[in-house]
């Protein structure tokens, strides 16, 4: 229905039939002679909702109060077939027209009422519901919250406070652990695939999960300066991790990287387990293989370990690890006790340092003669006051420190195999240990300084090749001569003689290796591609150790009913969301994890 009043005669006629004053407008017998009469109050700003509720859906009365000067303009604004009553305020007689101040006041009053009403009504669209559900699922998975929490009455109360309309629509435990888990998992794979380099390196390592009594092989993708991604994990519980089995896993990883991330694997980084080393040799025809430098350095730390001294340090620390003794240390300004752990890198160094840092306080506690508090064993007391033992601890710590520094440097996200060579060449042992452990150091260096690492070092624009000996150079030259074409060898000669574009790049003082070789690509095609691949190979497989730490945190003894596939998806989500949040500081104490497979050399 549409009644538009513009001329004075129309308004007067309307007023004669419908009593209109400043406070009320009564409209009667409108639209096909209906006898129904509704009161429309200006104070309610013509409550359309009440009018609509009183009429049939196809006979709704909408009343607009406006200042339009043209009835034709108003009619054009109405949709075809619609009905409306428009009362033009500018055309009403002065006696029948509310004052502008009255209208403004009552409009504001109406808005205040509408605002109050909105405070008590919450509605939610399907799109909003899906968005909230997705956010809740990511929150649960990223924070490792048990699935049953979503059905807790306290979580219900939280949702009711935050978004009442969503309270009865939130998912249950089963939906969260199945449909939503799969949805978030697949979405993250889709998001991650666009950040992975077209050519990448696979990191492979094994782990024993004591919580689930399972043995797992895991692969991740990583390049220096590139994106990281969890690729896949294989459950080898009850199976032997042979070289043949590992070759099969690597072939699956190559295919999976192509299908999932559209990326070609060209190199492998593994630990030094004998099966891993044999696998690397078997795959040498198509992939470059380098071992984890942090792992190699950790083996060196074990080579130089004084077991007798370590056992004595452990005996002292265990005595003071008892609750009352440790509390006494911290109350006197000391630090908490750090016991050595066989499967933690650098844990022996930290335990030695812990003993020396707390030595003065330990001696004070040990010397106490309170008969009611005889806490320290006589063997421990004698060790604390044995200067020869303390000197041995100090010497052993000085031996560990440079090795642990190498371990930590190689675990950096930006450390390449070229950087690892630099760290190994710079590594020196204290003078009083050089003769004793020179053979052990040489053996571990030989493992670390493989031909791929040496060539990467050789092609690094900053490191001086003078530190390479003649044997190293022969290996490098043989490798480059084998893989380069005639054009590539010409580019290699230009780099070696520092001619062509290379002196121009060095004049720019470009020291970042990846940038250096990208600039070199302007005139060279083959050698820069080889250099970029080598310089993108990570120095260690430490990233997988973080995955294992996360896995132990997620699939803990509290959640030991999780199946392998479900826990794998949870680990993928947890790890990937950490990367998205640029969370570089992983808590290595979240879970007790083993870092190597059986058969480690």
Account of the 3D structure:
The protein is of the alpha/beta class. It is 53% helix and 10% strand. It is built from 26 helices and 10 strands. The protein has a 5-stranded mixed beta sheet with strand order 8-7-6-9-10, sandwiched between helices. Strand 2 and strand 3 (37-41) form a beta hairpin.
Index terms:
601 residues, alpha/beta, Nucleotidyltransferase, domain 5, 5 domains, 5-stranded mixed sheet, 3-stranded parallel sheet, 10 strands, 53% helix, 10% strand, flat, disordered C terminus
In short:
The protein has 26 helices and 10 strands.
Assign the CATH class of the largest domain: Alpha Beta
Runs in which pLDDT lies below 50 for 5 or more consecutive residues are: 1-7, 18-98, 584-601
Full CATH superfamily name of the largest domain: Ribonuclease H-like superfamily/Ribonuclease H
The overall pLDDT average reads: 80
Helix content: 40-55%
Whole-angstrom Rg: 38 Å
What's the total helix number? Answer: 26
Widest sheet, order of strands: 8-7-6-9-10
Kindly state the number of beta strands. Answer: 10
**CATH fold call of the largest domain:** Nucleotidyltransferase, domain 5
Q: Whole-Å distance between the termini?
A: 91 Å
Largest sheet: 5 strands, mixed
Bulk shape: flat
**Class of secondary structure makeup:** alpha/beta
Tally of individual domains: 5
